[in-house]
Amino acid sequence: MLQGLSAQGLRVLKYLWVAPVTVLFLPLAWLASCTGGAYALHSGVLEIWGGKLGQGLNRGLPLLGAVAAITLGHIVIGISPDYLNRTRVHEREHVRQFERWGFFFPLIYLAAGLWVLSQGKCFYLDNPFERAARRAEGRLE
Question: What's in the keyword line of the UniProt record (predicted)?
Answer without folding.
Answer: Membrane, Transmembrane, Transmembrane helix
